[in-house]
Design a protein that fits this description.
The radius of gyration is 20 Å and the shape is globular. Strand 11 and strand 12 form a beta hairpin. It has one domain: 6 Propeller (Neuraminidase). The chain has a five-stranded mixed sheet, with no helix packed on it. A four-stranded antiparallel sheet has the order 3-27-26-25, with no helix packed on it. Strands 4-5-6-7 form a four-stranded antiparallel sheet, with no helix packed on it. The longest helix is centred in the first third of the chain and has 9 residues. About 5% of the residues lie in helices and about 45% in strands. It has two helices and 27 strands. By secondary structure, the chain is mainly beta.
Length: about 375
């Protein structure tokens, strides 16, 4: 049994947005100086089965198979024609600590490094005036992979390291493996704290903004609890730059996806507990479906939407572990993009993994990532309609 201590105030603030990645020893930020009552949280780490490098159990349970050795693998994308997943290993949320982009090989079940060439001096995509990032501070979050008409693969990455930006990479594949070439960037205006991105074949993209980054988090929390919008969706186009998507101001916009014809957006409103369907031609919301605390949303090859949904009480529950998995409950929800009918395909609490932030379907397997933990995981759809 491992014990972690949080002050009561830390506990409430971290709980409201577990995705902050708050750790027990993290100093309070803007929380005042009043005396706090300590709340002790107990986390038990079983020792049966395979052990990951940190000495924490890594065995399968409840039909879910974990793969350990990652660090906060918040978002996932499949590289077409390969057995590889791109993995965004996020730094500690709101602290802007460095993170990494990695590979996961489905066939070998192995985590692999991913080479990045940062040396390009004439960016191919994005805003020509956007300078190259500080590589040592690079801190990825949401990602999207776009197959262009000429079969080039463009990876878009939300970056918190040293700045709030969207970074563009070309994905190259060869007999030696896959690698990335940095190809440009774009910087949202104002005081953005961005989350997820979805790209367009003609060069544009949409990115969700959760709230203004310099706003003290206790103020953001108060806004959310009052039901006030804190963020919106940015649209960026090569000629026009950034503009706020009409009718997109919401309670903490999070994951975002787009239909195959690029006419319909699907946007997760985390503290609004719903996914909204947005028609670009009408510049309006044309439907919504209730999903509790929806994080990332992905679209499979059949067009179905997959949402990772958090089931914890955002006030009372939080993860405070330093190693191993966060075990907060979650669901995987499949949504028909036409009818918005939903089906819960997995409802889970406990080992071997919790607090899933993304569900990605590849063939008949669903891969899970998390913003807080040391593993990805997967389960098969046997017995469930594909």
């Amino acid at each position: 049994m491992k014990r972690f201590k949080l002050t009561c105030h830390q506990f409430v603030i971290c709980s409201l947005a577990t995705l902050i990645g708050c750790t027990p020893d993290e100093p309070e930020r803007g929380l005042g100086t009043e005396t706090e009552t300590e709340t002790e949280i107990l986390v038990e780490a079983p020792t049966d089965g395979p052990i990951n490098p940190n000495g924490v159990d890594c065995s399968a349970a409840s039909g879910i198979t974990p793969v350990c050795g990652f660090k906060n693998p918040e978002d996932l994308r499949h590289i077409p024609g390969t057995s590889l997943l791109l993995v965004s290993e996020m730094g500690e949320f709101m602290l802007d600590t460095p993170g990494h982009l990695r590979l996961f090989d489905i066939d070998t079940q192995a985590r692999r490094p991913l080479d990045i060439d940062w040396t390009r001096t004439e960016p191919r995509w994005g805003d020509p005036a956007c300078p190259a990032p500080d590589v040592q501070k690079f801190s990825p979050h949401g990602i999207d992979l776009v197959a262009l008409d000429d079969e080039t693969l463009k990876l878009l990455v939300v970056n918190h390291g040293g700045r709030e930006s969207i970074e563009f990479f070309e994905v190259t594949t060869s007999a030696a493996g896959s690698a990335l070439i940095w190809q440009g960037c774009a910087l949202p205006p104002g005081d953005p704290f961005i989350n997820d991105v979805v790209g367009l074949k003609q060069g544009g993209f949409f990115v969700t903004q959760m709230w203004n980054k310099s706003t003290p988090f206790e103020d953001v929390a108060a806004q959310l609890l009052r039901g006030e919008a804190t963020g919106w969706v940015w649209e960026w186009q090569p000629e026009q730059g950034f503009s706020v998507l009409p009718d997109s101001k919401e309670l903490m916009p999070n994951g975002i996806a787009i239909s195959a014809d690029e006419q319909t957006l699907f946007i997760n409103i985390y503290m609004g507990h719903r996914l909204i369907k947005y028609d670009r031609s009408e510049s309006a919301i044309i439907g919504s479906v209730s999903v509790r605390q929806p994080d990332n949303v992905t679209r499979d090859n059949d067009g179905m939407l997959w949402v990772a949904s958090h089931q914890q009480d955002p006030i009372a529950d939080t993860c405070t572990m330093e190693v191993g998995p966060c075990l907060l409950p979650f669901e995987v929800v499949r949504i028909d993009p036409e009818t918005l009918e939903r089906e819960t395909l997995l409802s889970h609490v406990g080992q071997p993994m919790g607090y899933s932030t993304v569900a990605l379907k590849v063939e008949n397997t669903v891969y899970l990532g998390t913003a807080h933990g040391d593993r990805i995981a997967h389960f098969t759809l046997e017995g469930k309609s594909p």
